[in-house]
Amino acid sequence: MSQSTSLADLLERVLDKGVVIAGDITVLVADVELLTIKIRLLVASVDKAMEIGVNWWQDDPYLNIRAKQLVERNRELETELASLRQANLETIQTRLDVLESALKKPGPRDSRRKSEKP
Amino acid sequence: MTGHDLWVYGVVAQGDEVRPEERNIEGGEDFVWIRAASLAALASYVPAADYNEKALARHQDDASWVVGRVQASAAVIADVFSRRVIIPFKFGAVFSTPESLQKRLHEQRTEFHELLKRLENKEEWGVKIFGSIEAQSIRMVEWKLDQAVKNGVTSGKLYMLKKQLRQSNLRDAERDLKEKARRVHQLLLMSTDAHQIGKAASEPPISGNSVCLMKSSYLVSSSERNQFLTRIHDAGRQYEELQVKVSGPWAPYSFCRTK
User: Fold this and answer.
1) Would you state the pLDDT for residue B76?
2) Please, which residues have CB within 8 angstroms of residue A18's CB and are 6 or more apart in sequence?
3) Do B146 and B164 belong to one domain?
4) A98 touches B at CB < 8 Å
5) Could you list the residue range(s) of the whole structural domain that residue B90 is in?
6) CA-nearest residue of chain B to A78?
7) B250 and B127, same structural domain?
8) Into how many domains does chain B fold?
9) With contact defined as beta carbons under 8 Å apart, do B187 and B231 qualify?
């Protein structure tokens, strides 16, 4: 379990939820769901956001360092996981190959059966 | 105030007006309480020219503008929520005059009072459950292989396992993970007053290609908080193939829909 409040969580709740009241209200941000998705896409990828010049977090030293650390850690984890997955697949494949070749070899029972045949 | 509109954060019961210790949406320190029908709406004045429909439409493409204001709005609501019951308003609720806001409070007074009563001592928690379908498919083939070895391998079983490995058995793995996520959700319902299921598919995958299997919000009594979190912790230990992400406590954003 991990307990954290990400910016995406915050955007989702504040933009997408809360009491909607119609009537004399002068402005209500239209299509908030679309807006949430749009903003979340921006914040989902720090690199992409920097590419297109969205760098609001750079003024905030906490967010700046943390965002970089998170992106780096994410990359490390993805590489680790990919190699683990590959290793797992190879292990299963090897076990299957060993079992298959063991099955192909005539065992003592098979030899006996063959010899029993007329 | 001429040339100014009222940005509304939320509503509390009259008598519960506490001074926010956060800055308002424009970075200032001033807030106003607009009172009507035994209710009090927390608001601050914003320049009308910057918050009219056209201006807001322009700001939508400016992430720093929106994010900054979302953070400010959330901080104000969270601050009041930490001390009193508040019904958060949807982001972008702007009224032209105090009278128009008072009229709205008066018209919806019954709903607001009922909501305030229902939300007393309650908090919202967000739970997202992730899992890697690919990794789960490998785990499932591995498990079947172990079983096959234990019970005696046949060439037919081997052929099926090889086929499953090639196809990664993704559909079964996804079904299995979703069922486990559903079980966690059922477990959490035991400590909650209400819940809302979100759109898991709209959630971006996290590291290791783990996709969101379930996304829910839960309304939890403050007194049940520890039990709720313990249940999540236990579920995380029971289902190691799932990653459970929790956020909260939030003001009850997802549980204040009026009729």
Assistant:
1) 95
2) B10, B88, B89, B90, B91, B93, B253, B256
3) yes
4) no
5) 4-120
6) B208
7) yes
8) 2
9) yes
